[in-house]
UniProtKB/TrEMBL annotation:
Signal peptide: none annotated. GO terms for biological process: methylation. The lineage of its organism: Bacteria, Pseudomonadati, Pseudomonadota, Betaproteobacteria, Burkholderiales. This is SAM-dependent methyltransferase. Keywords: Methyltransferase, Transferase. The keyword Ion transport does not apply.
Amino acid sequence: MNNNWWLKLQERIWGLSPWDARQISDEWFRAHFDYAADVVNQWVGGTVDIRTARLLNFGCGDGITDLSLVLRYGATAIHGVDIRKEYAKLPRIAREQLGMRRIPAALTFETITPGARLADRHGGMDGIMSWSTFEHVQRDQLLPILQDLHACLRPGGVFFLQIEPLFHSPYGSHLRRYDEVPWHHLLVTEEVLWNTIEAHEGPINAEEVDFGFADFGVEGYKRFVFKEYQQLNRLTADELVDLVRQAGFSVEKQERRSVEMAPPPELLSRYSDEILRNNEIFLLLRKGA
Ligand SMILES: C[S@@+](CC[C@H](N)C(=O)[O-])C[C@H]1O[C@@H](n2cnc3c(N)ncnc32)[C@H](O)[C@@H]1O
């Protein structure tokens, strides 16, 4: 946000705006403010000092996780980048959910074009994080973007990357809010899948309703999430690990989570059991010193 100098001045005069987590009423907000921020802090905070680190959030979305890292874990410099501008809603969201009058000056945001080079302007970062974003990046841009993020880090800097759900897992379509049939996207045609989404009526899981929902309306949101589904890059965990290594990172730590569900036999002739059940990956990557 380019009014950051104004926020800084206000914060210097009045201090950080008071906030109260007891006001949280939105489940999407809670999932990011509590869970996502806790996980990022656990992975990143274990290797760099969050309170002094310069951090970059690649695919920051509405910035709720970044806000939480500042308020709950003392982060002092987080720059969020995204191809959409959902973060512009953060001042309103923070007012409604936390009673905050101003978002902290520690947060800055930027809209980028897909694949835009960041390293020239954002070098020397101590840490980068990316939450549920890399499955949305166009396949041919994956390696150049990872190489660029590698160049954004200082030697020894870390990159925490999380993806959930992975494409081949039961709800890897990201359409579960409309369709509870596991692996449905791998079993039926796109037309059948869209008909299922279109026919859905009634409320959807509040944890999966982001703050963009109000912009689209009920039917528009269905079209939006279906288009997002069609654009997923279908990465597997192995492909991702291979790409991050090609980009120059070393894998310091990784965790893969899998569902305890039996995939349909017809899928097991096309994909391995491991790929079909692996729904989440966490990677802690490091740039060599
Ligand atoms: C599922 S959302 C996750 C947002 C946020 N990390 C969160 O946890 O709410 C995926 C985000 O990735 C962003 N995105 C997709 N492709 C991108 C790209 N090439 N560069 C930067 N952001 C991208 C989207 O605009 C979207 O905000």
